[in-house]
Amino acid sequence: MDISPQNLIYHELIGLMVEVVGSTNQYLAGINGKVVDETRSMLVIEVEDMYEKQVPKKGSTFVFHLPVGSGCPPATSVEVGGTLLLSQPENRTKNIRKLRMR
Predict the structure, then answer these.
(1) What pLDDT shows up at residue 68?
(2) Catalyzes what (predicted)?
(3) Is the C or the N end of the chain the one with fewer CB within 10 Å?
(4) Domain that holds residue 85
(5) What is the pLDDT, as a whole number, of residue 80?
(6) Can you tell me the distance from the alpha carbon of 75 to that of 52, in angstroms, rounded to the nearest whole number?
(7) Do residues 49 and 5 make contact, with C-beta atoms less than 8 angstroms apart?
(8) H/E element, 54
(9) What is the pLDDT of residues 28-61, one digit of tens each?
């Protein structure tokens, strides 16, 4: 299944371009780059060449920029609250099977 704005939270986030548009920590707002790692409660974002920032999912709002050719129009951006992403990545991606069965 292609990645789309409707099923973004069930897909792998590593490799997507992201921007932190809101955070309880004012110093994290405005960070943008590529997601290089993900844990249950953090996204690791590569902001410059070999410079990484850890951003907590809880209390943050992200805008993900979907890649061209993913079945959606070019320059598609999706705003996601970090609390929707709070889970282990491998468990969150398994939930897409449940979504397909509906």
Answers:
(1) 73
(2) Endonucleolytic cleavage of RNA, removing 5'-extranucleotides from tRNA precursor
(3) C
(4) 6-98
(5) 93
(6) 24
(7) no
(8) strand 51-56
(9) 999 999 999 999 999 999 998 779 999 999 999 9
Torsional class of 7: left (φ above 0), alpha (ψ -120 to 50), beta (otherwise): alpha
Q: Does a structural domain hold residue 48?
A: yes
Q: Name, in order, each residue with C-beta under 8 angstroms of 91's C-beta and a sequence gap of 6 or more.
A: none
Q: Which residue has the higher pLDDT, 20 or 75?
A: 20
Residue bearing tokens 């709070």: 86
> Per the domain annotation, does 73 fall within a domain?
yes
Q: Does the residue 1 lie in any domain? A: no
Structural domain contains residue 65: yes
Helix extents (H) in 1-102: 89-101
The CATH number of the domain holding residue 11 is: 2.30.30.210
How many domains is the chain partitioned into structurally?
Answer: 1
Q: In what order do the strands lie in the sheet with 32-38?
A: 51-56, 42-48, 32-38, 17-23, 60-65, 77-81
The 8-class DSSP code of residue 68 comes to: T
